Here is the input.
Amino acid sequence: MIKRTLKELQEMAKGDGLSSEYAAVIAEGVSRDTREDMNGKLYIPIIGENFNGHLFVRDAIEKKGAVASLWQKDQPEPPTDLNLIFVDDTIEALQQLAASYLEQLGMKVVGITGSNGKTTTKDMVTSVLETTFRVHKTAGNYNNHIGLPLTLLSMTEDVEVAVLEMGMSGRGEIELLSQIAKPDAAIITNIGESHMQDLGSREGIAEAKLEIATGLKQDGKLIINGDEPLLTERVGSFPHVIQFGLGEHNNYQARDISLKGKGTHFIIEETEYFIPVLGAHNVTNALSAIIVGELFGVTEENRVKGLKNLTITGMRNEVVETSGGWTIINDAYNASPTSMRAALDLLSSLNGYNKKIAVLGDMLELGDMERSFHYEVGKYVEDKNIDYVFTFGELGTEIAKGAQEVMDPTKVKVFMNKQQLTSELLPLLQPEDVIIVKGSRGMKLEEVIEGLK
Here is the structure.
């Protein structure tokens, strides 16, 4: 984590007002949360809609052991007996501090955005690069205007590559993160429908995701899903673009994709790769990791090794074997129409199982078209050889309506209670059945998985 004198931190954050007697005091790490270990750290008091971190500055220093705190200049009654660095805006100061720290370290940076697959791609890129470099990656969902700077400031100085996930809800957010991180390589995994209510259309989402290129270093590479026309149509003005995907027009194309056991095999040129996660959409994510590895000088042998030894963040196509003999694919972390279709494609492509069952929950944040999106996902089960569809949630009823039009309606079940869903599904299950569970994070469908285990 960052370790600097308070004078250095004041300069890096573009602050002032620190008493000269504290200039040589060293802070090791930063924190915005007084519930964390604050000992020896710089406290960052964030102001939100329903909270003001300045109320906890005294506690942070006197009770939690922080050595100093930022203080936003428009906040009244700054304590005169504490070590304070005055800034115009504490969030902007945090961002400036992170950007300065990154510039001082001079490491390489990979930025990753997209509607789906950001975290899986982050894990894949990290696994490939870790065969050769010391790598630091975004933890959890620390991928916004506060989380990304905190991620950077938590790095040790011996890190050689930072792999940073960049999330958003509206225009300008990815641009801000890209300007802070200044990536050497920027990946856009795909364009889906998430945040439709904020951006209005998939075209608007594509433009927002392309903001990741605004902070690219002069010779930085923009790595995009070349099977997405909304991206390929918009990158003509970018000098260094690499396309990946399943289509022959891509610079990197995967072929001979096969699902075996708990993983997926595929070939690029003459090299065979294996990833311990299921689905063609995950092969696409892996392509971007292979590209980054090659750009950064990772050998082909280590690229193969890195993906083979991949560990994926939980609830993303996680294969769960049960004592009853049925298999659960836990993809309950989040959902959008694009990722729902990918999940149904995956379920359809699995061989060697008896019944195939989809448990699908509401997809959130889809705006005015949310009902039609759910209905179309339901219709997408047509000819997928899926035996049952169980839905959960109010919008799940629209999935059920679509599914009932294209398959036996008696095998489409609608639930508003997870316990009832589990109770009706369990008696149907036999050894060698497979169930995929998919829904937005707010639906907490992992509770259904616990019941099925």
Observations:
- Residues 106-308 form a domain with the UDP-N-acetylmuramoyl-L-alanine:D-glutamate ligase fold (CATH 3.40.1190.10).
- The first helix runs from residue 6 to 12.
- The mean pLDDT is 94.
- DSSP finds 16 helices and 22 strands in the chain.
